Amino acid sequence: GKVFLIGAGPGGIDHVTVRALRLLRACDVVVHDDLGASDAALLDEAPPSAERVHVGKRGGDARSWTQPDIDNLLVSLCAKGKIVARLKGGCPSVFSRARSEMNALRANGFSYELVPGISSALAAPLRAGFPLTDVEIGKHFLVCSAHDPSSIDFPAFKGVDTCVFLMAGKSMDALCEGLAHGAGKDGSTPVALVRDACGANEAIWRGTLDSIRASIPKSEKLSPCVVVVGGVCAL
Predict the structure, then answer these.
(1) Which CATH number fits domain 120-234: 3.30.950.10, 3.90.1300.10, 3.40.640.10, 3.40.1280.10?
(2) Does the reported pTM lie above 0.85?
(3) Spatial strand order in the sheet of 83-88
(4) What's the mean pLDDT when you consider all of the chain?
(5) pLDDT digit string, tens, across residues 16-27
(6) Where does the Tetrapyrrole methylase domain start and stop, copy by copy (predicted)?
């Protein structure tokens, strides 16, 4: 057997690569994360005979499979000679725990291939109408997980033009405080928050470090979301 670790993109079938579709259409089994609204359309691309296994992986969802269980599943399927399309949200290169799955397959003598996808870190700014970089005000960017704000080294963001935070839905207060006091970012620094970029529940809010929290109704569910901080957000 063989596993293809495939980036399913930020959402929707329009944002997967041609190679991802070709592999999906030729697989024996699809092992997929919670891909939101794109689930049904993507899974319909797999052969009718292909087994579909939903392993969850939506943050905080008690129904999500543990990573060791997913690793063992992939090994088990390979041992049966199956060609597996392992659909992972965004790109396998960004916060996908790909290393654990790679290590498990390699340790058991099975082959795999990494298939790039579009990361929400790259897609969200474009959906909000601005480029992630700019020759004058956005010469560099830093991408960070906001799943655990206490682990972020905010002073390291001081000289960075554009800061991108993934999995930031529950961390807005900590992010704004950390960037203002730890990274020395001015309160007038532009901010864009993009929920469900390219998905059915896409929404975009704009503001500054001082105002962004007040501009979002507390009743709004923000996950999954990307927060971009920097001058490019005002372009």
Answers:
(1) 3.30.950.10
(2) yes
(3) 51-54, 29-32, 83-88, 2-7, 111-115
(4) 93
(5) 999 999 999 999
(6) 2-212
